[in-house]
From TrEMBL, chain A:
NCBIfam families: MocE_fam_FeS. Gene3D superfamilies: Rieske [2Fe-2S] iron-sulphur domain. It comes from Vogesella indigofera (Pseudomonas indigofera). Its cofactor is [2Fe-2S] cluster. Keywords: 2Fe-2S, Dioxygenase, Iron, Iron-sulfur, Metal-binding, Oxidoreductase. GO terms for molecular function: 2 iron, 2 sulfur cluster binding; dioxygenase activity; metal ion binding. It comes from the Bacteria. Residues 5-101 form the Rieske domain. This is 3-phenylpropionate/trans-cinnamate dioxygenase ferredoxin subunit. Belongs to the bacterial ring-hydroxylating dioxygenase ferredoxin component family.
TrEMBL record, chain B:
It holds the Pfam family Pyr_redox_2. Signal peptide: none annotated. This is 3-phenylpropionate/trans-cinnamate dioxygenase ferredoxin reductase subunit. Its cofactor is FAD. Residues 7-303 form the FAD/NAD(P)-binding domain. It comes from the Bacteria. InterPro entries: FAD-oxidoreductase/Apoptosis, FAD/NAD-bd_sf, FAD/NAD-binding_dom, FAD/NAD-linked_Rdtase_dimer_sf, Reductase_C. Keywords: Dioxygenase, FAD, Flavoprotein, Oxidoreductase. Residues 322-410 form the Reductase C-terminal domain. GO terms for cellular component: cytoplasm. The keyword Flavoprotein applies. One of its GO terms (molecular function) is oxidoreductase activity, acting on NAD(P)H.
Length: 106, 416
């Protein structure tokens, strides 16, 4: 089972950008793609524990602020060395001007 | 020619380990042997001066690939084994124990070793170097709260260890012979930021400082300065750079300058021998001048590139130089080249952050350096890299303006 959590306002994130969201001791990254679709992944790189929200979003790719780790944030897929472990992704919905992500119940 | 002989990689550090894995990714299915003189799996070094000291992070977190992975990929590993000689004519290496092994092609990823200070008392217990996982494991228990650490050398290793030790509660003094910190790599403005940060966190930094000797009875207990002053301490960390391991190559008659000389494909003066990483001197893609880099990206990218070269690819290694350093809760990053620039544009950022853009006479970006809290400048430096690659003239007023987005500059450039 999962539950929906409001992560931020739609307007908090610019197009082709990313925002950090911390909740219940964990950290997430919320993305707004160039086509205005929203996505959510785990907030830290799978290579080292670095916050992805400090990284650069280009099209549908987030690049870790350290090293060269790149992920497709829509699927979480790791796009080659040094990252080989995919990012966890989370369902996203927009409601009442807010971005909601679905987190698994503890 | 012995086609059944393996590709042999000498040196199982970052570049060597990455090259081995990349050879398999590139489809090389033949025999592959990775020889290293350390007992460990290949590993990345950045955490040695930081997470490994601060968080007692397990060594495994630094490993490149796992033992199972090397086994599955049929990458044979000889760990804790030294290579004594290369015989290029017979394409054979001799190991320290006398064994001889034929190679089809050879990759030298021999790295470097930390320089020891040539001072009286350098052999005292407690005078530490930091280059390997074992060095970090030996240093960690010495950095207990209340211990006194003297760091010799105000470069990146010294400053990162100073920051870690301070955060662990040590009393830390950094001694630097030059007139500013990390002068070889950084612009003066960034050196000044580093100095201010270390001062504000209680690190004593002495510039223009000459050391006479390490004093102690078996174990170091003081550093004696040239003017006779004694600085009491429990541990000394010597961080005065590395010496590239070029001796094997030189003894085999390969061309060696300030590193093992390679061409743009990373091939040495011998057609069957390549070299990568800290030990190699390669032509700068911009100037053509030989350069040697001691960075994470250089090891990573050259390791990957040489795998393709070994398999016949003709393209030149052209990765942009890039490195970072994390100290306390701040980080700096540098991309490209600063030396040849005609003009420097400064952009002040919130919270005392700073971006420096280095342009040539035609206002094309050559290099960029950023400083700020956390990873706040990472995105801008990544965009600067893309702007450097674009090779287009840039408006300096926009570069200087914190309100002007580098991404829109890039997109403007792309659409020109």
């Amino acid at each position: 089972m999962s539950h929906w959590i409001a992560a931020c306002d739609v307007d908090d994130i610019e197009q082709e950008d990313v925002l950090r969201f911390d909740h219940a001791g964990r950290t997430y990254a919320i993305y707004r793609a160039p086509d205005d679709q929203f996505y959510a992944t785990a907030g830290t790189c799978t290579h080292e524990k670095v916050h992805l929200a400090d990284g650069l979003v280009m099209d549908h790719i987030i690049e870790c602020p350290k090293h060269n780790g790149r992920f497709d944030y829509r699927s979480g897929k790791a796009l080659g060395a040094p990252v080989c472990v995919n990012l966890q992704t989370y369902p996203v919905k927009l409601e009442a001007g807010r971005v909601w992500i679905a987190l698994a119940d503890a | 020619m012995n086609h059944s002989a393996p590709i042999i990689i000498v040196g199982a550090g970052h570049a060597g380990g990455r090259a081995a894995l990349a050879l398999r990714e590139q489809g090389y299915a033949g025999p592959l042997l990775l020889i290293g003189d350390e007992p460990h799996l290949p590993y990345e070094r950045p955490a040695l001066s930081k997470q490994l000291l601060l968080d007692s992070q397990p060594a495994a977190a630094c490993h490149i690939g796992s033992a199972e992975q090397y086994l599955t990929l049929a990458i044979e590993r000889l760990a804790g084994v030294r290579v004594a000689a290369i015989q290029p004519q017979s394409r054979r290496i001799r190991l320290h124990d006398g064994r001889e092994l034929d190679y089809q092609q050879l990759l030298l990823a021999t790295g470097g070793r930390a320089r020891q200070a040539s001072l009286p008392g350098a052999d005292l217990a407690g005078v530490q170097l930091l280059r390997t996982l074992d060095d970090a494991a030996a240093l960690r228990p010495r950095l207990q709260a209340g211990q006194r650490l003297v760091v010799v050398g105000g470069g990146f290793i010294g400053l990162e260890v100073a920051a870690s030790a301070r955060q662990l509660g040590c009393a830390v003094t950094v001694l630097e012979a030059g007139d500013r910190l990390a002068a070889r790599a950084l612009p003066p403005l960034i050196s000044a930021k580093l100095l201010a940060l270390h001062h504000s966190r209680g690190v004593e930094v002495r510039l223009g400082c000459q050391i006479a000797a390490f004093r102690g009875d078996g174990s170091v207990n003081a550093v004696e300065l040239a003017d006779g002053e004694l600085l009491a301490c429990d541990t000394v960390l010597v961080g005065i750079g590395i010496q590239p391991n070029t001796e094997l190559a030189a003894a085999a008659g390969l061309a060696v300058g300030n590193g093992i000389r390679v061409d743009a494909r990373l091939r040495t003066s011998d057609a069957h021998i390549y070299a990568v990483g800290d030990a190699c001197e390669f032509p700068c893609p911009v100037s053509g001048q030989p350069q040697r880099l001691e960075t994470w990206r250089n090891a990573e990218e050259q390791g990957r590139h040489v795998a393709r070269s070994l398999l016949g690819a003709a393209d030149a290694y052209a990765a942009l130089p890039w490195f970072w350093s994390d100290q306390f809760d701040h980080s700096l990053q540098l991309a490209g080249q600063l030396q040849a620039a005609a003009n420097c544009v400064t952009r002040a950022l919130p919270d005392d952050g700073l971006l420096l853009f280095y342009l040539d006479a035609a206002e094309r970006l050559q290099g960029a350096c950023g400083w700020g809290a956390g990873n706040s400048i990472a995105r801008d430096i990544k965009l600067a890299e893309l702007l450097i690659r674009s090779g287009k003239p840039l408006p300096t007023a926009a570069l200087a303006d914190p309100a002007s987005s580098l991404k829109s500059l890039l997109k403007g450039v792309a659409s020109v």
